[in-house]
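In this supplementary section we document a worked example of the pipeline. Step one takes a protein sequence of length 103 as its only input; no multiple sequence alignment statistics are reported here. Step two produces a three-dimensional model, which step three serialises into structure tokens for compact storage. The input and output of this example are shown verbatim.
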Amino acid sequence: MMAVSDYMPPQEVTPPVLSKGESYEKIAFNFCKAATIILFTGKFALPIAAGAATVFYLLAHFNGKTDSRCILQKPLLIATFWGTICLAWLFIHLRPLWMHLTG
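The serialised model returned by step three reads:
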């Protein structure tokens, strides 16, 4: 059993300092992920990525996450933004096809 005098308060964790090379690699890695998605999804990359972002930010929000590293910062706000982008893209690009099939 630990005595009260043995208690150590939690230490504040400081993030590691990144070199310029490491900083650039982090940015490059994000573009690498984006390029991979585009490679596999082609012209549907935007609605797929926006839809996935919407779903996962909603999941994050409804599971208690209240902040994000994204520039918009709030998961629900981010999900709303990307959901709107996804729906707008689908409407603009698929409406002519739908009109052709039904008309």
